[in-house]
Amino acid sequence: MIALLALSARAEDPQLRSETLFQARTDLTGELFYGGIEALRGTATTGPARLEGYGDLGWRQGFDQPVDGEIYLLTADGEAGAVRWTLGRQPLLLPTWNRRLDGGWLTVRADRSLRVDLAAGIASRSGSPGAVGGVPVGRLALAWERGPARARAGLWGELADEAVGHADLEARLAPDAEQLAPQLGLVAAVGTTRGDTALERGRVDLGIRAMPGVRTTAWVEHRETLGTPALRSDILATFAPTGSDAAGLGVGIDDRKRDRLWLSGSVQRWSTDVDPEGAGDPALGLVGEVRYDPRCGGQRWCLSPSWQGVSGDGGWYQRAGASLGLPVPSPLDLQVRGAWVPWRKPHLEQRSAAVAGATAVVDAGRWLDLEAGCDLWFEEPTPETRAWVAVQLDAGGGR
Q: What pTM was computed for the model?
């Protein structure tokens, strides 16, 4: 980040965004502590290269704790003819789980429809807990796109304690959203180690717009355990799952004002290595969601309610809440929110929590935004409170 800032001083069209956050919150014992984070994002052009960086530095656990920081993105990229390159710390997007790559990415466009992607470097972090950082990885992919159809086939490997190879295929047919035409999607990814091959992810989805403004989407999906919150292992399965299978249906409705209503539900089956009942049957669970997203515009009352529900052999929980935008004069934006969250785990009584909060944002000009807010999570025996003030400053190219 320091190198980026130094080069920005002599670069063309430098832009810098600073986000400063101060917060006060209570810990699990009810004791109040204070913390702060300074985040910087910058871009600049120097010669044939474009520079970009994003990182932060702060006291997340309180000013009395050691300072810590992280660089999430630090790249230089450019292009020459049909070749585009990126060097530095960057995301490596994969069909299974994403990595953060310290290395290089090269894209060669063979023609308007076909390109070749090459990547190599060190995976500094994985989406799977317990994975060792600093794992060498390599990636080769062919991508094709023409009209509403696109496809990508890839290979990638990693060298940890042992070599692991992966192969993946993605395909999608996505006509314009206003057309009364189906949308199809396919994702398949397999992994091989020590001669054993497993399906890491498989998904097929079909979307149909039977009439203007209404789209129905159905999907089936299999995933191996990736250590992501999507597995909801603490609720849907008493023991940590090793994989999941799901079948779901969702309906989205857009009216003429572009308000959006989304309803979805799915049945999920969870496989585990441990069978507490000895029956040998995988755990079953249900997931549901209702979400209304209005397009209200400024200086109007704007209510956005939502509901989520999850149940499984590890218990159940629901979350019913809403956010309300208030009609306040410009340049102030004011929003209040609240939710009720009941849940229950095996052999325990049902519990619940109430959540309430508010956020105020002031657009103080072309270069400056101010934000202040607070949240209260009330659950016996001790409520948890969080309040924050954030300052966002844009310099250089502006917003």
A: 0.80
